[in-house]
Amino acid sequence: MPVIGIDHVQLAMPAGGEDDARRFFGEILGLQELQKPADTAGRGGLWYQCGPMQLHLGVQKDFSPALKAHPGLLVDRLEPIVEELKTAGYPLSADVAIKGFSRIFTIDPFGNRIELLERVA
């Protein structure tokens, strides 16, 4: 049976980072937090709705950030998010241009690489 899609992407985070994650993923990026299933809630971490997929943040005991691997999050308007990230003190970096997209990289509160992309004509 073939793979038919992606249900979710998971990033690791250190224990106790939920408040920082909520500020970054919920307030700045505007993702809707989901209630984790009862059998996984005790592990810590957070789940977010991200379009038709989900973004999960899971607590990792010996945490180290993903410096190269990253989710590419499609946004409807990049500039307001860039301004929010600047105001909040998050670093921003550009990379090679990709036709049809405006994009920028940042890091989440834990050092994980995050790509933000907006489709452009």
From TrEMBL:
Every VOC domain range: 5-119
PANTHER family xref list: FAMILY PROTEIN, PUTATIVE (AFU_ORTHOLOGUE AFUA_3G15060)-RELATED (PTHR39175:SF1)
Listed name of the protein: VOC domain-containing protein
Species of provenance: Paraburkholderia phenazinium
